Amino acid sequence: MEEVPVDDQSPVSPFSKWRDDFSRAFQYFLDRSAPHIVNRWLGTLAAAAVYVLRVYYLHGFFVISYGLGIYILNLLIGFMSPKVDPELEVLDGGASSPTKDSYEYRPFTRRLPEFKFWYAITKALCVAFLMTFLSIFDVPVFWPILFFYWFFLFFLTMKRLITHMIKHRYVPFNFGKQKYSGKRPAQSTSGSRRD
């Protein structure tokens, strides 16, 4: 059998080169947006407002909106849940979550980090928005039933999550790094001052 020599400089199609360049540029801007949390979420809220206005003016695509709502609810569960479930950790024989004051403090680690949560919601909104341009997805349904069913699912899910948070004493929200004022200078009790 003959060996085929491999060229280091094989011809690259223009489409694959463009795709790689676009992917690299997109990842660059995505990485640059990571520290700008408020601006990212404002952009996502603007995209959500555009989607809601489009659905409102078209009076349709309620099934798409319901699917989007279920997907966002699923992402919210991952965002508010700990990476390691304390109930499963106890069953496996590992260290349990800190339920007494004597245990060491462990920061809350999410199953779904904030950046991935934001990115998934933004992508879902964009896909749902693009789906509103295809009439095949405009299935006629009685939307109040879908809305109340979604609200019922949301209520049950939040009740379960909040009960889990109370039971295992964790808070899924972080309000920034705690700031300490440092040690206060000791007051002399003798009343005399040194100069």
Strand content: under 5%
Work out the radius of gyration: 26 Å
Q: Structural class, from secondary structure content?
A: mainly alpha
Shape: extended
Spatial separation of the terminal alpha carbons: 96 Å
Number of helical elements: 6
Oligomerization: single chain
> What number is the mean pLDDT?
81
What order do the helices and strands follow? HHHHHH
Uncertain segments are none
Major β-sheet profile: none
Number of E-type strands: 0
Q: What is the helix fraction of residues, given as a range? A: 55-70%
Number of domains: 1
Secondary structure blueprint with pairings:
Elements: H1 14-33, H2 37-58, H3 62-80, H4 86-91, H5 114-131, H6 143-168
Concise structural overview:
With 195 residues, this protein is an all-alpha fold. It is built from six helices and no strands.
Task: Describe the protein.
The chain has helices at residues 14-33, 37-58, 62-80, 86-91, 114-131, 143-168. The chain contains six helices and no strands. The chain is extended, with a radius of gyration of 26 Å. The chain has one domain (19-168). It is an all-alpha fold and 195 residues long. The model has no long low-confidence stretch (mean pLDDT 81). Helix content is 57%, strand content 0%. The longest helix has 26 residues, at 143-168.
Features:
195 residues; mainly alpha; extended; membrane; transmembrane; Protein RER1
